C-alpha cells in the first residue's frame, strides 16, 4: 500500500473528506501533527506522496509555528525528488513560496465560503483538473493570496478576485488555495470560530454554512474525483523513482 506523509498544522484542519477519498483509493495516510509535538521526518524516504494541509498561520509565521521551516525543507525535497505533492491553502501558499512565487496578505480581503472556479487554459491537459466541470464549487477560507505563481508553474483554476486558486509545478506537484477536504461540518465549526471576522464582511456563520450545505453533494462528487486522480499519480511516479511496483496498484484509478 502506498504511504503518504500528511502534515496537519492545527486542530480542526485535518485531511477530512480528502483523506477519506484517498484512503478509499487505496492509500495509507501517515498524519503528523507538529503542533502536538509530533516529530517531522528529516527525509521523505519510505513515502510515496506528500500532503501539506491548511491552517490559520501564514506561510511565514515561523514564530507561532516553528515547524514551518522543516515543512519548507520537505517541500524542497519533494520537488527535487519528483515525489507527488499536494499543498492545500497554507500548504499551497508554502509550495508557491518555496518554488519562487510571491505570497502576501490578501489584497482584496479574505475569501470565505462557497465559490465557483473558472478553468484556465492550462487545466485542459492537467491530470487532476482536466476533467473538472465548468464552474466547479470550492470552499474558500483564506486571508493570504498567491500574488504571483512560481516560474514555469501552470495556472489551472481561479476565482475573479484571486486567479491563482490551483497550479501545477512540473508533473508531480499541485498547490491549491481552496479546501477540497472541507464539507459542511467543518465549515460550521470554522464559521462559528470566525464569526467576528465574518461580521466585518457582512456574513454570518449560518449563511456561510448554508451555502456549503446546499452544494455538498456536488462538492463530494467533484473533489472525490480529483482526489482519486491524485492517487492515480502515485503508483507510476513511485515506480519510476525507485523501481517499486508491489503494493502500489491499489492507488491507480
Automatic annotation (TrEMBL):
Pfam families: GATase (PF00117)
Database matches in InterPro entries: ChyE-like, Class_I_gatase-like, GATASE
Database matches in PROSITE patterns: GATASE_TYPE_1 (PS51273)
Glutamine amidotransferase domain sequence ranges: 20-183
Alphabetically ordered keywords of this record: Glutamine amidotransferase
Keyword Hydrolase: no
Keyword Secreted recorded: no
Protein name according to UniProt: Type 1 glutamine amidotransferase
